[in-house]
């Protein structure tokens, strides 16, 4: 006696039909990697959405981290801090200190973050860890 169970049709894709061996521009890679960091467990979902393997996405993430690390180098770098005097401020030596409405931070990777001075340091640290991981 033999049992036969229906099986779904099988499709065979060749490399050309499946679109493999695509060449992604650096801008596309950066956009995909940034999207993969937008939430918890988004790496696999992002990889599926773009039709790439999870391991390729991991490679791109590592390259991005290493690229930003190698750009920083091992030597300390002076980062200029530019402060703008407010309309009511009489200068840096003034006894009156005014709290800025927003703080703008330019990161090594070219991104800029604007935040309130009231933002808790722990929250800012978590944001920076996502936007510019070490």
Automatic annotation (TrEMBL):
Family classification: Belongs to the transposase 8 family.
Protein name: Transposase
SUPFAM superfamilies in alphabetical order: TrpR-like (SSF48295)
InterPro entries the record matches: Transposase_8, Trp_repressor/repl_initiator, WH-like_DNA-bd_sf
BP GO annotations: DNA transposition
Recorded superkingdom: Bacteria
Cross-referenced Gene3D superfamilies: Winged helix-like DNA-binding domain superfamily/Winged helix DNA-binding domain
Annotated GO MF terms: sequence-specific DNA binding; transposase activity
């Amino acid at each position: 006696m033999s049992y036969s169970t229906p099986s779904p049709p099988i499709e065979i894709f060749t490399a050309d039909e499946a679109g493999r061996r695509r060449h992604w521009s650096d801008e596309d890679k950066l956009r995909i990697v940034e999207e993969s960091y937008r939430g918890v467990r988004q790496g696999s979902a992002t990889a599926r959405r773009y039709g790439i393997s999870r391991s390729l996405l991991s490679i791109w993430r590592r390259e991005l981290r290493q690229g930003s690390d190698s750009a920083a180098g091992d030597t300390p770098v002076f980062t200029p801090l530019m402060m703008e005097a407010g309309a009511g401020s009489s200068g840096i030596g003034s006894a009156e200190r005014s709290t800025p409405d927003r703080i703008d931070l330019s990161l090594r990777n070219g991104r800029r973050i604007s935040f309130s001075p009231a933002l808790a340091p722990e929250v800012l640290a978590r944001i920076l860890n996502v936007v510019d991981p070490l």
